[in-house]
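Suppose you are handed a protein chain with no further information: no name, no annotation, nothing but its sequence. What can you learn? This example shows the usual starting point.
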Amino acid sequence: MQLNYLALAVPFFVGLMIVEFFIARKKKKKIFNFTRSIANINVGIAERLFDTLVTGLFFFVYDYLHRHFAIFPIHPSLLLWVALLICTDFVWYWYHRLAHEINIFWAAHIVHHQSEDFNYTVSARITVFQAFVRTGFWCVLPVIGFPAPMIVSMLLVHGLYPFFVHTRLIGRLGVLEYILVTPSHHRVHHASNPQYLDKNYGDVFILWDKLFGTFRKEEEEVVYGLTKPLASNSFLWQHFHFLLELLVAVRREKGWKARLGMLFGRPDQVDPSIRPQLESRLGIRNNNRSAGEELNRYVVFQVIFSLVVLFGFILLEQWLSWPVQLLFTIFILLTLVNCGAILEQRKWVFYLEYSRMMIILTGVLCYYPSATLLGVACLTLPVSLYYFNRLQNRYLNWVY
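A reasonable first move is to predict its three-dimensional structure. Written in structure tokens, the prediction is:
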């Protein structure tokens, strides 16, 4: 059986988050918030899940462009690996900068900046939409002549570094502050303070920001998150709120020129009053009530279970058939939406729980098809539908 050892990244990064949590607690620094940490990790779980499904597509795109449009015949060597690192980081700078300056790109990137915390869990706030946008920028690398295996290998290494700069536990790093992106530099980037906005876009090297005039040194205390905080635990709303706001803003414009101008304009052009209007229309409420320790433990259990399922999914990816992969994907997504719904104490959460049980039952039948199990499933479904309201009330009483 061929295993995908990239699955080991899941326990590795989760382990570092736990280490940071205990160090912060020992130093009596309150840099973790329960609901925000759960939301951050859940976004990361979804990204890892979808990234596993589309990584092959990205490799195919790089390989196709290299075989048909490569300008230079590049072969791996030490100097060319260094050149690739520099090119990758340069392209990243411009992708990252434009992701803050152009609405359609900001719609994919905004999720990374929603948390009002700044710790290792925030580094997980990446979406598959962001991965697609970045790939569009990185397509210049195979056209230059870098082979697809080199690019994918470099992106794996290049993607490791940013994780370690999402922390408040590390101060200034001396001479490294002049060359590399440090935690101090990246804290500025995640700030919502007016003087810090749109600064420090670099990923590994801070040189690009100094070269193109977007560098700002950390001085005043940083306030993290969006300039207009989202204040919602909804997994779906976190992913799609700005896209919906942008669509409303585009529809308000008259003429295609004005609409394209809004689509590719700056985020501050979008009317801030659109979001509360959408929240009212869609029933999105900002719930600041504490869920309680028992409910929190239930949510933590679901997150841990999702991480275990994700680890198994990635590890056995090439061994699982596509129907099983589909079931895994739906189950994990329902669980992530479920966690946010529970934290916001939504009554419709029972439908998610019910759907998850149906997914599990379907999965069992796929792996162990038998007349007995099929009979139990056929009996369970109508009985559960008949007692649906009673089961729902008991569940809601138990949860809330």
